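[Automated response] Your request has been received and processed.

Submitted sequence:
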Amino acid sequence: MAQKGKDSPEMSPEKALALLGEVRNRLSTVAWALHGMHHESEPPGPDDLAAVEQLVSDTVEGPLNEACDALAALLGVNAESESLTRH
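Generated structure:
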């Protein structure tokens, strides 16, 4: 039996759900950061925007990507299918 490694798409439903919870928490942090920037007397600076961009990129490339791959495997669908909408 093959071992489940970090590169393996096999993941328990609980782990996939935990990853989605992490994504939700990170996106909540982004929303609060943007909300705070909106209420500042000065517009957000390049460093502020870069920090938000980095958090979003890390979230998409990390736990969101892993959760999508795991859920695709659990549901028996191809995560790279052209029938799935991507922006």
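Summary generated for your ticket: Residues 49-73 form one domain. The two ends are 37 Å apart (CA to CA).
If you did not submit this request, please reply to this message.
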